[in-house]
Write the structure tokens for this entry.
Amino acid sequence: MRRQPQPQIAQFDTGQHAGYLHLDPNQHAGGVGEYLLHRAKPYLPPWLVAAGTGILSLPANLMWNESAAGAVGLTLASLGLTAATWWAGKPTSQQRRLHSAITVAAGTSWFTAAALAGPAAGPLPSLYLIGAPAIAATWNIRQLLRVNPDGAPNDGDKGLLEKVGLAKTLVTSAKVQPNKAEFELQLPGGELTPDDVSKALPKLAGALRVAKNALRTTPDPDDSSRTTLTVVPHDLLKAGASYPGPSHPGGSIADPVHLGIYEDGADMAAFFPGDPDAHRNAMHLLIMGMTGSGKSEGGLTALTEVITRRDVIVWASDPAKAEQTLGPLLPALDWAALTMDDTKAMITALKAVIPARTSWLAKYGYKQWEPACAEIQADGSPGMPYLIAWFEEAAKTLRETDDDVFTGPAQEARSAGMSLVVSMQRASHTQMSTDTRASLGSSWVFGLRDDRDAQFALPDEAMDAGASPQAWKDKKPGYSYLVANGIPETFWATPGRAYLTPVDAMNWAVAGFAHVRAQCDPVTAKAAANAVGPAFTQRTHYPLPALTADSGDDGGIYDQENAPVHYDYDIDPTDNADGDDDGWIDPDAELPPVERVVEIAPPEIPPRTRVGKAEAKKIMAELLAEFEAAGLTEVGPADFMEHCDRFHRSRSWVSGQVAEMVETGRLRETDEAGRYAIVPLQPAAA
């Protein structure tokens, strides 16, 4: 059976020097004949030159036989070629320079003599038959000694690694994929360490003519003299990717939550609950990125995934932008705090529910939360879903409360089946206490302004390996690094890109999975109600969006009702044990007969034509152009909603389009929430 050819990278062009990072020369395709030819090809050039010299001596002898002018010309040419070889070999090693000069001198001298006297004259045939193979063989020997059995250079990779300060470093093996190459480096013991390789990455990136983010290193955990260099020549994340839909629809929050893709196409996923079998703790997450880096959009993708799971509830806060960011997901949240007062109440409630939830877990024999906790327990008690507390634009919360306000929940919530997510632009010590930052543990880092900001969120191991979010800034929205529990350390410095989730996809997830989503359990609800009272018991429940034909409705299988459960937080199940049924309704009793039927005529609503998404986007762009032409410098979703009769879309859809305009650079955020500065269109260059 014919073997399929393997992808291979012959070399990296490093300018003056040929790159010595190359693939295994043993790779080949075909049968025995092709295999032998493949193995022989690298060693053929010296023999071809030797054979060509002998053949060309025949016509040369016919032309210059016994010619004085020919003798002078050939002699001068021989001397000139030898001198040129010696001069050109100056940048190479002394050994190669001398070997090359001797080879050229011997070959041109024999050719001159053969051209003048004839190749069969005197000792010339013996010199050719002995000398030509011997010289060709010396070049083959040099080539064999340069390459180790794995096909990697074995001379310290002079010219590339030595050029960037990694002299005596050996490339012991190479693994190549279509757009990724991994090289195992053996460092000289006692002279270089993996840290030296990390410091050399910028120079090495320049030598290989790739972006700095295209290189990263992974030290060998068991041998400090070895490290792996990974090279990704082409950025496959440029095109981005839209949210493909729930990764585990109706599954458990214990399943991985897919956030985006890595540069090699692998899924970027995170785990919220812990897993003792996998030696993984529950995740507290710091999300960080400058304005325009795609941080909020990445968070919306994560939350869209979460709300499709059956055993988790979400408490989310955004006192800075209110409905602007969380708007499409509000109906799926158990508690949404969109003001500072509600946010403060939510933090107070979080602190109160931690001991209540840990007591419940201990009562039923759970050392930490697991999917079985959300099921009905053996004694008939309702289960306890996982709780994710998500604080969007947390800098405002920290400023108006205390920079240490999240430290207690971050240190204690894991054991209570809870995860804390804090999202902000810059987690500096002036905004967030170092104790809080240390307790969060995991980080999802988007583009940042400089490397000092990166140090607030990324561990030293990731930055030493080549992670540099400051290289993206706000130019590549969605590009990010994920350092989290359950993510192998080899992926900490691997760039990924968060999915972009359209508002219609969020609406579909909100409405389509309403029938599987958990509701707040009695233990958590009672503790929160006792702590903050009406702030929790009277929290707003938002109506589900109506699904349309283009928003993912697959036939009306979803429950469109939005009837929140109201708990009587002080009720005691034993209160009715004495038989007193005042106020008690028997659910098994027959309904009373119908006495009166009232017909209510539906209101007359004029028909409206709902335009398609593409046309609606075009109308949005036209509206923005009209606002700009009218002299407006700032706009917001409300300005577009005043003209909703032109596209008949919901406010959440309009807000999503405004956010997309911010991403594409047509709008720019201002200091005022919900207001955006219009960025004039740049005329095309002539």
Q: What stands out?
A: The chain is about 35% helix and 15% strand. Residues 1-26, 148-157, 549-584, 601-608 have pLDDT under 50 and may be disordered. The two ends are 58 Å apart (CA to CA).
